[in-house]
Recover the amino acids of this structure.
């Protein structure tokens, strides 16, 4: 009997190893092997803005699933773009694009980002145009306003195009929500005093009394201090299949991923952080879609409206045109992505959500301020083709950037003077 059990166990082990070997070969041969090591890092602390790009930083930027692996370089001015002289060349129409990670464009080649597509299209159409990328990951309208006042206006743009992402820009503009999300104050911020914008914490760290943090209540320790199988991780990291499969497992089966983390077969990540928050956890950023809006979000919209008005005023005072392009999120465009959010955070199912709400509210503000804008959401929803997003990461892929760049071209083509 013992001999039969041993033979059966060995056969099962052989089958598992064989299957693993086949999958390993498939991932490698099919070119799906995710990059190893760490992606390039492009940011540094900045007293003016909280953080900014480190001039000269370069390398390949990728995520653990290997959805993208794109090279980027920061120019001498701290922009992810080619070098530009501050003085605009004669006869050139210059557009300065402000925005966050969607504008920064690190997930696609530099010449495939939407602002590069826009520049290429306009020049092919016979316009002499420079489109300067001033996007920085994680920035809100507040930091973009400060950047324009400090640096952006020195490029003498003919147009400032603000790429506004409702998915997190209102949160970024509201220090109470930003603190709830990140746990601390890492940036300058604005408050409304008697209806007017008042700048705080610049230089960053100058108002430590404003520091706020998330709850200090102890969280459950779901991962043992010494997981029993953690010694296998260095070996497993050499497997292309392991590096390809585990990030996807975290998305499709977070409970199983948590078990593997507890055993030490994978490093704790999003599945562990979410589980530690408890069953009532709802990520802060989704509050922008909640109906009705809670008071901090209502205040966030008031601050955002004031920021947009100030940025437009500054741009027009410099003699330039101010316009806005509205960036759609994956959960607004792909119903399956939103259903996955609701399933991943069951507490959300007790509330009402309106995915179009932020776009309507932003449109109302921009119409009141008489600011021309292009909302890409209906254009992305009308797309009938492969996904425009990296499924796990959630940012646009090259198709998404191409669609946005082409739509902006059609919208802006009549703005430019004939050559």
């Amino acid at each position: 009997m013992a001999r039969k059990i041993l033979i059966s166990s060995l056969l099962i082990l052989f089958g598992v190893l064989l299957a693993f070997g086949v999958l390993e070969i498939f991932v490698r041969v099919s070119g799906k092997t995710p990059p190893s090591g760490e992606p390039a890092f492009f940011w540094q602390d900045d007293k003016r803005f909280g953080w900014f790009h480190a001039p000269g930083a370069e390398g390949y930027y990728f995520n653990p699933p290997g959805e993208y692996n794109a090279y980027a370089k920061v120019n001498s001015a701290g922009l992810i773009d080619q070098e530009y002289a501050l003085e605009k060349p004669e006869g050139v129409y210059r557009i300065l694009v402000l925005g966050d990670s969607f504008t920064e464009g690190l997930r696609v080649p530099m010449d495939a980002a939407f602002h590069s597509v826009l520049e290429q299209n306009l020049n092919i159409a016979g316009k002499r145009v420079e489109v300067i990328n001033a996007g920085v990951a994680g920035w809100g309208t507040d930091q973009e306003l400060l950047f324009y006042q400090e640096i952006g206006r020195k490029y003498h743009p003919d147009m400032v195009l603000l790429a506004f992402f409702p998915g997190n820009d209102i949160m970024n503009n509201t220090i109470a929500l930003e603190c709830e999300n990140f746990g601390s104050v890492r940036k300058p911020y604005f408050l409304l005093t008697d209806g007017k914008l008042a700048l705080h914490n610049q230089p960053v760290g100058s108002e430590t009394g404003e520091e706020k943090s998330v709850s200090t209540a102890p969280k459950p320790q779901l991962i043992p201090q010494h997981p029993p199988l953690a010694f296998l991780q260095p070996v497993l990291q050499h497997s292309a299949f392991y590096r390809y499969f585990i990030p996807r497992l975290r998305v499709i089966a977070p409970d199983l991923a948590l078990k593997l983390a507890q055993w030490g077969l994978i490093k704790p990540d999003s599945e562990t952080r979410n589980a530690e928050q408890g069953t009532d956890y709802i990520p802060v950023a989704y509050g922008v879609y909640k109906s009705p809006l809670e008071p901090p979000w209502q205040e966030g919209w008031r601050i955002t409206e004031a920021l947009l008005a100030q940025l437009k005023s500054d741009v027009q005072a410099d003699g330039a045109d101010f316009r806005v392009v509205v960036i759609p999120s994956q959960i607004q465009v792909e119903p399956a992505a939103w259903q996955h959010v609701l399933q991943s955070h069951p507490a959300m199912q007790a509330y009402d959500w309106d995915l179009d709400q932020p776009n309507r509210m932003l449109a109302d503000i921009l119409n009141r301020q008489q600011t021309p804008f292009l909302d890409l959401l209906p254009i992305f929803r009308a797309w009938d083709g492969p996904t425009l997003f990296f499924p796990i990461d959630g940012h646009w892929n090259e198709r998404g950037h191409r669609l946005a760049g082409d739509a902006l071209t059609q919208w802006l083509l009549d703005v430019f003077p004939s050559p």
